[in-house]
Amino acid sequence: MDFKVNYPQVGATRTGDLPSGYRHLVRTADLDGSLAEAADLLMTFGLHERSGLRPEATAARAAPGVEVRLRFAGLLRIPCQVVWAEETPERAGFGYGSMPGHPERGEAAFLLEAVDGRVRFTLRSFSEPGTAAARLGAPVARFLQSRATDQFVHAMRAACAVKRT
What we know:
Distance between the termini: 42 Å
Number of domains: 1
Low-confidence stretches: none
Strand order of the largest sheet: 1-7-6-5-4-3-2
């Protein structure tokens, strides 16, 4: 498949062996709820909506090649492309990478796994500033990236708690 991403390590978030030379972020949380329900929210970009983003995707479900423009605060449009996806009874998730025009260069993964009778949600990413503005504002960009990652975890936990009651 011909990906339009702007970094060479396509798919590196799938295994968790993140490439050196980038900033790495990893967050893990155990969830209340079923993997199937959480997977449906995740794979349809519903988690992104619950996290305050407005995804505009070229398909309703995450799959390799799907392009996603994440709208934030009505101003920013952040272009990404899904580079891997999987859905099995034990695992569901995808990774998407930055495309030209994204303030960062790198990849982020969202993964759900059945582990010891629970559902584990993992986010992992590697990135570096992709524009001059992002390099100049690196401390702010890192803070915003960490905050967005934490928001994804909070939104997934809240969605799973709601589904259970």
